[in-house]
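Weekly modeling sync, notes
Attendees: AB, CL, MP (scribe)

Item 1: holo prediction request
CL wants a bound-state model with zinc ion before deciding which constructs to order. AB pointed out that an apo prediction alone won't tell us much about the pocket. Agreed to run with the ligand included and paste results into these notes for async review.

Input as submitted:
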Amino acid sequence: VKILNPSVFINQMPPAAQLQKTLKAKNLIIFIDERVSEIPFVAQWLTGFPYVLRVSCGENLKTLEEYTRWSKKILPYLQGSLPQESALVVVGGGTAGDFGGFLASTLKRGIGLCHIPSTWLAAIDSAHGGKNGVNVDQFKNQVGTVYHPQKIFLVKELLFSQPSENLTSGNGEALKMAIIQGGSLFASFERTKNIDANFIWKVLPALIQGKYKVVKKDPLEKKGHRRILNLGHTLGHALESKNGLAHGMAVQMGTQFILDWSLELKFIKKSSHERIRKVLIKNTLKPISPISTEHLLSQLSQDKKHSLDGIHCVFVKNIGRPFIKKVKADDFITAAKRWGWAR
Ligand SMILES: NC(=O)c1ccc[n+]([C@@H]2O[C@H](COP(=O)([O-])OP(=O)(O)OC[C@H]3O[C@@H](n4cnc5c(N)ncnc54)[C@H](O)[C@@H]3O)[C@@H](O)[C@H]2O)c1
Ligand SMILES: [Zn+2]
């Protein structure tokens, strides 16, 4: 499997005819976050499509029960045509994307898929790379597939319609990518005064390209190379599931923790740690209360990065130099307590 970056950058919503042509599908099903569908220019755009499904989104959507419910709603639209003549066009954040991607990959064993991300987090990260899925109990992304979308439209007017919390969350993944990539991408984050919407729109192609650079080496996630994209996610997932914290914010906290731990273990120099710290504080987060050891332990044992002999943890050697090292769950917990993330 070879994958190219299928991103298209545009200012306004793509009309139905353009979508049918680029996706080579006559039957388009719009699967849209209901909140997004109420934005006036989006509501106007939707009038051009016969099949529109308005979906209540958020982490609550990503369940097996919702999967059953939505499959039954969509299947009738697919009757009477070949699977490849239909495409699901997902408009929403990462939860709509993860859920819609899983639907598209499994209905009739796979129909067309296109993402139009409406959150910065989805635009920067989750719409790319093909990973989708639903949660099982409190464990994230336990059932899913790797299924690459045919196209991803990054629409300026849509991304700029978001509230500021969404920018703060998306910035968590953007900062993660800047640390992984290093080089000129990290330098732009050092130079900018504020990580605002205009800045992110400007660096969006480079952030996305950074993800594809990693994904290309392992498109179906068979070799473990994509694990470096999990920087900040081991602690992040535990914080996210406990506090109802936005994904990107949790990831940024997890990244901060790993940096501090990397410094303590002498993996990274003080000067590089300081340069990264200065960039991270440009995206201000509200403090949270520590999580319990039991919760952290249960998350660590379910985490997909966990194997019998330890957790695959992403540390940082330098800017642009993340690396994977196995650690014991006990050591992880002790360290998390030391910086006040767990109690
Ligand atoms: N598949 C991957 O590779 C990958 C990568 C990173 C994260 N994720 C997943 O992504 C999810 C988080 O995504 P998210 O942060 O986009 O969450 P989300 O989809 O829940 O969106 C956040 C909130 O913003 C609202 N919203 C969306 N677009 C809006 C707009 N334009 N204007 C106003 N409100 C809008 C949504 O209704 C929701 O309330 C998590 O489930 C995470 O696990 C997946
Ligand atoms: Zn993430």
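Recorded for review: The first helix runs from residue 16 to 23.
Action items: CL to compare against the apo run; MP to circulate these notes.
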